[in-house]
Amino acid sequence: MAPGGAGNGITLQQLRYFIEVAAEGSISAAADLLYVSQPTMSAAMKELERRAGRALFTRSTRGITLTADGTEFLGYARQVIEQAELLEQRYLGRPPSRRLLGVSAQHYSFVVDAFVRMVKASGAAEYEFSLRETRTWDIIEDVRTLRSEIGILYRNDFNRKVVDKLLRDGGLGFTPLFLATPHIFVARTNPLAGRERVTLDDLEELPRLSFDQGTNNSFHLAEEILSTRSSKQDIRVSDRATIFNLMIGLGGYTISTGIISDDLDPSIVAVPLDVDERIEIGWIGHTSIPLTGQAERFVAEMREVVADFGVELFS
Question: How many domains does the chain have?
Answer without folding.
Answer: 3
